[in-house]
Amino acid sequence: xxxxxxxxxxxxxxxxxxxxxxxxxxxxxxxxxxxxxxxxxxxxxxxxxxxxxxxxxxxxxxxxxxxxxxxxxxxxxxxxxxxxxxxxxxxxxxxxxxxxxxxxxxxxxxxxxxxxxxxxxxxxxxxxxxxxxxxxxxxxxxxxxxxxxxxxxxxxxxxxxxxxx
Length: 165
Prior knowledge:
Layout: H1 17-32, H2 47-57, H3 77-98, H4 101-107, H5 127-140, E1 155-156, E2 162-164
């Protein structure tokens, strides 16, 4: 029977301590550079890379070396968007309703220094305007850059007449 349990011998390579320390320092540097990412590349990923990553993940230690998990690779952009929306809803729910005070306090030292919001109504905000807003926000605690409006939005009716401004 091919699904029968067969023990796999574990005979790790014994490394000299200086090599062990070098590898651990390298691993630590990699781990310290990790960040939670919310924006991903739209570049295609070769199927072989996905399959190899899944094979690596499937080797994680488990009871009796049975790996009782399933992985799903999703390529449909609409399905990925729905998953992202659901994950973001869950994250909001967690922080707004379920996170303990201790958890929120632990995050406080990592709060962003500055938050910039662009309303996209004025898509051509210059780099100079953004730099000035950042400088003002740092100096005073908040800043709202204001640009003159040179156009308006009109609502027209079915005949093409302006119904509202």
